[in-house]
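Dig into what follows:

_____
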Amino acid sequence: MAARSFGSQEGGGFNDFSKAFKKNPSIENYVRLRRENPTAEIEVSVLGGIDPLFYMEPELKRYGFDPDLIAGTLDADPDAISEISLQLMERIIEARKRAEAGETHLVRRGLAVPDKLIDWIINCSLDALSWNNTLEIPRDLIVLIRERLGGANPEYKQAAHAHEQKGNAALIGGQLKARGITPTFKMLADALGVAPSTVKRWFEPGEFEREVDYWSRAFDADGKMIPFNERQK
C-alpha cells in the first residue's frame, strides 16, 4: 500500500485543510487555518501542474530559457532547480552590468529578464518542492531568493555593521586620547578604511567626544588596555 501523501486524506485527495487553503491561498486564510489547527497537514502549492508551462513557453523562449528545464523544475528535480537558478542569476548579473554601462529599457529590448518572470520561476520551484514533499532547498535557489529579497548585504546588516564600526571608532579614539593624541575623524577613517564623513555621520553632536573620553579611561598612557577591575570610574 502506497504511503499517504502530505496534506492528503485516507483514500486519496487533499484533506479538508489543504482544500480550504487552495480555495483561498491568501496569507490571511493560511494563518487562520494554521493557528486554529497547529498540527494539521496543509499542502501549500498553488501554482503546480504542467498547464501553466504551455502558456509560459513563448515567454520563456523569448528570454532564452529551455521549457524542458522548467518542466524539470516543476517536477522538483534538484539539478533542474539549481541550473535554472544559476541561469537566472547570470541574467541578473548581465543586466546589472548593462545598466551600469548606461544601457536602458533592457527588459523591453529583451536584454533583461522581467522581475515577474524571475519570481514566477522561484514560486514554481518552491511549489514543486512542497508538492513533492521535497523540503531540501538547493543552495543555488537560496542564493537567488536572497538576491531577490535584498541581496547578501540588506539594510539591517548594513546598520549592524555601521553600529559595530561606530563602536570601533570610539574605542580607537579612546586609545589615542589615552596616549596623549587628539583623535580626528580622518585618523579613525584611515584606521577603519572609510571616509571621514562616514565616521562623522555615525555620531550625534557631542557624542563622539563623550564616547572617546569614556573609552580613554580603559587604556594606560602606552595605549594598553587596563584590566576592568583596575579602571578608574
User: Anything to note?
Assistant: The first helix runs from residue 16 to 23. The two ends are 76 Å apart (CA to CA). The mean pLDDT is 90.
